[in-house]
Amino acid sequence: MPPTLSPDEIRDVNTRYHDVAADHYDSKWGIDFGDLGHDQVTAKVRKALGRAPGQYLHSLEIGSGTGYFTLNMMRAELIGEATCSDISPGMLAALSANAASLGLDVETVPADAENLPFADGSFDLVLGHAILHHIPDLPRAFDEFARVLAPGGTIMFAGEPSRYGDRLANVPKRAATAIAPLWRRAIGARPAPPAEGGAPDAALEGVVDVHAFAPNELSKLALEAGFADVRVTGEELLANWFGWTNRTLEATAEPSDVPWGWRQYAYRGYLALQEVDRRLLESRLPAAIFYNLMIAARKP
Ligand SMILES: C[S@@+](CC[C@H](N)C(=O)[O-])C[C@H]1O[C@@H](n2cnc3c(N)ncnc32)[C@H](O)[C@@H]1O
Asked: Residues near ligand 1 with C-beta < 6 Å?
């Protein structure tokens, strides 16, 4: 956590940053609500749980953003009734628009993960994607997840940054920066124009992420909140290195000069390496070295 910011300031920055980010969030991160998003999310749920998912009667998503997880899980018929919460009203407005365009009915509730405005035992699934690393007081948030879950209910969080995986990802980033001039010459691209003030949310980007995790730190949070059957797994290794290499190279070039063929190669290569990670590496290598961590557990 940046030492200069208090927990209240971190929540405030998260709200403002994500309110501004909401309008272009789906295009920036390639959030998809078609077949691709459906397949990505159902694969992540299966991986996190370590088995085929069941059906949940009433789910609560924490930090739901524009709805990537809940809306795709509803399309896959894994969830009956859905409640989505987020500290950013802007993100919830974008989620409601996405739900309406998909013909899905979702309740949205502005809420801080550490103070959930729901009665004890209200849900049989509490889930989230790329949210835990934004929360200042994680033990308090995990106590809240346990409180609002009914006995026998499940928590599942995916897309959390792994501390060692993040360090390993610096290797391809540095290598790509070093070879970028050669790469631009090879594809005939001009250097990227200097940024003029940057994106409106760029100034806050460095302060909204307050944690990266080792696998045992995630399991400790769940165990101390009283959860059982705690399972922490890792995902994305080669796909991530490939993705960071290409994103770093592309960021150095004038966007209109990057050929369509290159973009196809980067996109298809990423999907192919995700398959290699999934089929060969994720079950064999320690969770700590992967870029993302996921956790699932059960309330006794
Ligand atoms: C990286 S985004 C992920 C959004 C979405 N889950 C996804 O995967 O696309 C993190 C989300 O967490 C929300 N958030 C940040 N801090 C929060 C907090 N303390 N309580 C609830 N939500 C929070 C942000 O507003 C943002 O929508």
From this structure: 11, 14, 18, 31, 62-65, 68-69, 86-88, 91, 112-113, 129-131, 134-135, 159
